[in-house]
Write a structure and sequence with these properties.
Elements: H1 4-18, E1 23-28, E2 49-55, E3 58-63, E4 67-72, E5 77-83, E6 93-99, E7 103-109, E8 117-122, H2 123-127, H3 130-133, H4 144-151, H5 158-163, H6 173-182, H7 196-220, E9 251-255, E10 258-262, H8 264-267
Antiparallel strand pairs: 1-6, 2-3, 3-4, 4-8, 5-7, 6-7, 9-10
This protein binds zinc ion.
Zinc ion (ZN) binds near residues 246 and 266.
Length: about 280
């Protein structure tokens, strides 16, 4: 699933390509995708796109006339600018926004469970849109005290807290693992147990990991998200491979139905979590 760096690069690429282009038509291909009835989808037709933006993991289009399209791609949604489609829509098609110049902003979903969503909102609707109003601060450039406040003092597992968009926006499982590796924090560290030194390491790591990932993403993503990518994460998805910092074999432990990858030398003082069932009770 794309996270802050990839979605930010995509929003910037789409903004450069779409700003000023007039919407010539909108077609919803799947009933589950469009979550709003008012303003109607047709209200977008004839209006120029003003801006494409990202907040958290949401992509937004501001359209003239005080209209906004907010897109949540979820796990399997894909958004790209493509030549206007002809013929019957593909099975993966969710929504097309046709633009002048025979281009279309296409939302597809590569999964039979349709979770991606599109909301068409007016100014008041955007201001009250809960997925946006509930988002925590953006992590890049966020100060230590803002991080402390965002994470809270509770007993949540840090990896879970990092992925909770209401605490801090835009981080998913891939960058949460990479940030914890970069900060040399153990997989089940508690958000509320970080001392000043650990918190400072976390803040520096989050900034560095996300900033570097954003720079890389800008180099390869413009108006389409690549399906397969070379290694762009340091540890996420790479258990069994050598740690990029010390060469130790990366280990993994089951956590909330996925693998949390860590370096025993860098993060746990050599400890390897053998009882993988235990980790299920820790979230
Ligand atoms: Zn290491």
């Amino acid at each position: 699933m794309p996270e802050l760096p990839e979605l930010q690069a995509l929003a910037e690429g789409l903004d450069a390509a779409l700003a000023g282009r007039v919407v010539t038509g909108v077609r919803a291909h799947h009933p589950a995708t469009l979550k709003t009835a008012e303003p109607p989808l047709e209200a977008l037709t004839g209006q120029p796109v003003e801006r494409v933006w990202r907040r958290g993991k949401l992509i937004g289009l501001d359209v003239a006339g005080g209209l906004h399209v907010v897109i949540h791609l979820m796990q399997a949604g894909r958004l790209s600018l493509a030549p206007s489609p002809s013929g019957r829509p593909a099975r993966t098609a969710s929504l097309d926004i046709d633009l002048e110049g025979e281009r279309a902003l296409r939302l597809r979903e590569l999964s039979s469970t349709r979770r991606a969503s599109v909301h068409v909102l007016d100014d008041a609707g955007l201001a009250a849109h809960r997925p946006l109003t509930r988002l925590g601060p953006e992590p890049i450039g966020l100060g230590v005290e803002d991080w402390r406040a965002a994470l809270g003092g509770d007993g949540a597992v840090l990896h879970t807290a990092l992925r909770d968009g209401r605490r801090v926006a835009g981080i998913g499982r891939a960058y949460a693992s990479d940030i914890m590796w970069a900060a040399r924090l153990a997989p089940f560290t508690r958000a509320g147990s970080l001392d000043d030194d650990a918190l400072a390491r976390l803040v520096r790591a989050a900034d560095a990991v996300l900033t570097q990932a954003l720079e890389r993403a800008r180099g390869r993503i413009t108006t389409e998200m690549p399906n397969k990518e070379a290694r762009v994460t340091a540890v996420h998805g790479h258990h069994g491979e050598p740690c990029l910092r010390c060469g130790t074999r990366l280990e993994h432990v089951a956590f909330n139905e996925y693998d949390l990858v860590y370096c025993p030398a860098c993060q746990t003082g050599g400890r390897i979590y053998r009882d993988r069932r235990m980790s299920r009770f820790l979230d």
